[in-house]
């Protein structure tokens, strides 16, 4: 990554973030490319780019006496590391497991997962062994290394952070005063039916995490709980869709009366 936009000293950084642990007399390098385009105007107008750390636009990593600022999504790496903590997997297997076990609460495209896997291997947190195959490309089986397991446990021990919600459907609904009620109702009915279909698929997996006594299997309790949350969310969304449909039907009746 090209690091060419600017440099500043530890004194100027600590002015903004006094508690940030920094080596003495370090040099901070930052890259213009790491800032999303919609933040660049603010970036260029801000004397000290370290202030972006306070607002979650950047993350810090130290290496020697250099502090490098990079825009990144940290949670995906831990999802990948968590899946690899139990068994070796190929990249394809990993994306399939992600789809089955994680996608109902954390969405990521398979290309993002592959990129994260490559980053983790460069950092020594994941390693692979090569399996030779006939009539097809050799297969890489990835596993979590000891340093990777240590970092995963460190992350699991951190204090919880407030969740950040991004829901395109709710963004659309917030603008439904601009469209006819009938169109809004059609959207909500389709959304409800989609969530009902997903709920039925999730329910089919539920038995995989239960013992014969219908209690969660200890080794799968985390997966069981996240699946249960996903199912509760689907039911809640469907209930909310019915409520919202009722609101728009009453609006439609008032407009025609």
List the helices and strands and how they pair.
Blueprint: E1 6-9, H1 10-16, E2 27-30, H2 40-45, E3 59-63, E4 66-70, H3 74-84, H4 91-101, H5 110-122, E5 126-131, E6 139-144, H6 146-156, H7 168-173, H8 181-206, H9 221-256
Parallel strand pairs: 2-4
Antiparallel strand pairs: 1-2, 3-4, 5-6
Helix pairs in contact: 3-5, 8-9
Q: What is the alpha-carbon Rg in Å? A: 24 Å
Portion in beta strands:
5-15%
SSE arrangement, N to C? EHEHEEHHHEEHHHH
Structural class: alpha+beta
Main-sheet strand order equals 1-2-4-3
Helix count, DSSP H or I runs of 4 or more residues = 9
- The level of helicity is 40-55%
Domain Transcription regulator PadR N-terminal: 80-152
Protein name: PadR family transcriptional regulator
Domain Transcription regulator PadR C-terminal: 165-247
Pfam family, one: PadR
What does this structure look like?
- This protein is of the alpha+beta class and 257 residues long.
- Among the domains are: 70-157, Winged helix-like DNA-binding domain superfamily/Winged helix DNA-binding domain (Arc Repressor Mutant, subunit A); 168-256.
- The chain has helices at 10-16, 40-45, 74-84, 91-101, 110-122, 146-156, 168-173, 181-206, 221-256, and strands spanning 6-9, 27-30, 59-63, 66-70, 126-131, 139-144.
- The strands form two sheets. A four-stranded mixed beta sheet has the order 1-2-4-3.
- The longest helix is centred in the last third of the chain and has 36 residues, at 221-256.
- The termini are far apart.
- This is PadR family transcriptional regulator.
């Amino acid at each position: 990554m090209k690091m060419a936009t600017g440099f500043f000293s530890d004194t100027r950084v600590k002015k903004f973030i006094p508690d940030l642990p920094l080596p003495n007399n370090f040099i901070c390098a930052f890259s213009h490319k790491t800032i999303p385009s919609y933040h660049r105007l603010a970036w260029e107008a801000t004397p000290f780019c370290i202030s972006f750390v306070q607002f979650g636009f950047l993350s810090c990593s130290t290496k020697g006496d250099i502090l490098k600022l990079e825009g990144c999504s940290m949670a995906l790496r831990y999802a990948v590391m968590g899946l690899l903590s139990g068994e070796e997997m190929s990249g394809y297997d990993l994306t399939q497991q992600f789809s089955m076990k994680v996608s109902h609460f954390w969405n990521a495209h398979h290309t993002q997962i592959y990129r994260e896997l490559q980053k983790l291997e460069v950092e020594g947190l994941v390693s692979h062994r090569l399996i030779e195959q006939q009539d097809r490309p050799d297969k890489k089986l990835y596993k979590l290394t000891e340093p990777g397991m240590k970092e995963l446990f460190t992350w699991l021990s951190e204090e919880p952070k407030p969740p950040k919600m991004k829901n395109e459907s709710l963004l659309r609904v917030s603008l439904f005063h601009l469209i006819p009620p009938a169109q809004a109702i059609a959207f909500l009915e389709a959304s409800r039916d989609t969530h009902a279909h997903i709920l039925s698929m999730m329910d089919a997996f539920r038995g995989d995490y239960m013992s014969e006594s219908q209690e969660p299997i200890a080794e799968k309790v985390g997966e069981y709980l996240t699946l249960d949350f996903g199912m509760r969310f689907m039911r809640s969304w469907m209930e909310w869709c019915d409520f919202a449909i009722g609101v728009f039907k009453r609006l439609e009746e008032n407009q025609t009366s």
